[in-house]
## 1
Amino acid sequence: MITGKYPNLRLRRNRKESWSRRLTQESTLSPNDFILPIFLIDGSNKKESISTMPGVYRYSINRISQVIDRAIKIGIPMVALFPKTKNSLKNEIGSESLNENNLVCKAITEIKKKYKNKIGIMCDVALDPYTSHGHDGLIRSNQIINDDTIEVLINQSLLQAEIGCDVLAPSDMMDGRIGKIRKALDKSGYQNVQILSYAAKYASSFYGPFRDAVGSKGSLKGDKKTYQMDFRNSDEAMREVALDIKEGADMVMVKPGMPYLDIIKSVKEKFKIPVFAYQVSGEYSLISNAIQKKIVNNDIVVESLMAFKRAGANAIVSYYADRIDKILK
Ligand code: PBG
């Protein structure tokens, strides 16, 4: 691999000026590489800050055009919608997930009406924003039950597809859900709805601020270790990805992002399919709070994002996406 040798070979020669460094760069970032998560709340004219995530807000439906306008202007290809459901609407079985007037459905309708196909819409398929216990699936005798959960996820997928969601993103980690959702979508005429599987999703403490943002933190009983992956494992991630591809996933997600760059790289090398990285809430919070406290400077953001591209990610879900034009300048 290494050809040549000092003093004939001096790697610093290519680094000597900015123009030369730009010419020899291996990875690049542009707004096309980003998916912007948007938190939704009920009510009207609301833009609520989230204390653990400086610079990130929850928007009421009538205020989301403010964010979408910006996203389209800077060239972000897709947004991901996450609802903060009122506690009074949560129950054991997450039935609000199947309400055609829930926050996510209302937001999809608004965005499609106003923007047509100028920007893609991605929606999570999982029950945690809707269950009183904060888990992604149904619970029976203290267990998250796989197959019955899938039946609800199928209905949630069909509903979101019908309202106009472009990309369904099952983030629940139940076994076999991709195949069953794909089959149900096809049977109902939604062959063109894409599936982005959260295939390698780890049980992670990096999700803390997100659970704050969607209001599932206080309610979550126990942890998610019986369905999300064990962070000691990487072979298992390859098995998860292989299964989801066989079942019909168009794209796969690795989540969290930065602590799992090795997984992103292996998935890309082994499977040659679109791989997305999720720079999750905890990563965002650590970086943003450290910048605010002047422990590190702003450049850390680009460095953290470029790492995903270097590892082989096609795109990145990031809470920085709405400011990425300024960040990349
Ligand atoms: C829910 C879901 C989670 C995230 C995205 N979808 C949290 C969880 O699994 O508990 C986390 C995103 C983030 O931390 O930014 N299935």
Note: Residues 242 and 271 are 8 Å apart (CA to CA).
## 2
Amino acid sequence: MPRGIRWPKGPNCSRWSCEILQTDLMRVSFCCTDTKAQPWLEGLRAALPGAAVEAWAAGAAAADYAIVWAPPQQFFDEQSGLKAIFNIGAGVDALMKLRLPRGVPVVRLDDAGMSVQMAEYVCHAVIRHFREFDGYEADVAQGKWSYRKPRLHADYPVGVMGLGVLGTRVSRALVQFDFPVLGWSRSAKSIPGVQCFSGAAEVNDFLMASRILVCLLPLTPDTENILRHDTLSRLQPGGYVINVARGRHLVDEDLIALIDSGHLAGATLDVFRNEPLPAAHPFWKHPKITVTPHTSARTLREESIGQIAAKIQALQNGAPVATLAGVVDPKKGY
Ligand code: NAP
Ligand code: GLV
């Protein structure tokens, strides 16, 4: 009997056949914190016409597929038959903290429109700093017509930590603006125009060759607090930090101390240890720090629904999990 068949209507549906069909219905459970469920449910139902797609509530029937963002532990504790877990974001750090059902693959969003947003955000932050647009804006606000000495790209090498889906796109975009671009990842990479470094053995060379530092690493035990005093001190004098990955990559006090001492010129931060950023946090009012509300690369609903539905359909048709893009390696944690 085909999976995910619709509940039959009409006089030929005996109680017995309806029960068999109900058992066979593919169930998708949606459990996403901080997300309006209704438009997702409507989009998923349209994309998976044979499936029962429901928002999770405690005690609901066990599902075949879970679509999640920072779900509670109770959600997984109640699931006995999951075939795959789909995360509606790129970062899976919140999921990795939970007890997940053993052997069930976790699939993150694979770009789904995020990398172009991230490239826009990072290029904007780099160029705003490099071209001193804040300074011009302040001058203009005072009615001042003044020029600053043009800066040279060669003096502003940009180091990108993390050369995955987002870091690769960001690096390529920066190359187009003639910045010297360096990249650092766990495994060795080759990206045209990017000087690539890899592994713990090469991180210091990478940092010392960078002036602007962009963090696009996943948050794992290896990368937590990676932006701290000793690593940020290695950046070239007048360094600038752009953190668009996770707040826990950065030691907040170390960044402020290095900016206030003059070693760093400033920072653009999109992610924080506590979100929303608490009103009393010094980042809000620091004159050399720009804050944005975790918005550098948003989940785009239509793209994401299309991507997740296509992967569910592929699995239903027998595709091996390994053929899907974005399957998380539980050992690496990303
Ligand atoms: P990804 O494709 O998994 O890429 C991760 C990169 O980091 C890979 O190049 C990986 O190296 C490298 N890496 C991981 N651990 C490392 C380590 N210990 N040392 C050196 N390199 C390491 O991830 P992505 O899609 O680019 O996303 C990156 C992160 O951005 C997400 O995890 C999320 O936290 C964040 N994010 C933020 C926003 C936002 O709006 N602010 C939006 C989306 C995502 P290998 O290639 O060798 O494995
Ligand atoms: C957003 O931060 C994401 O991980 O997708």
Note: The chain has two domains: 15-111+299-323, 114-291.
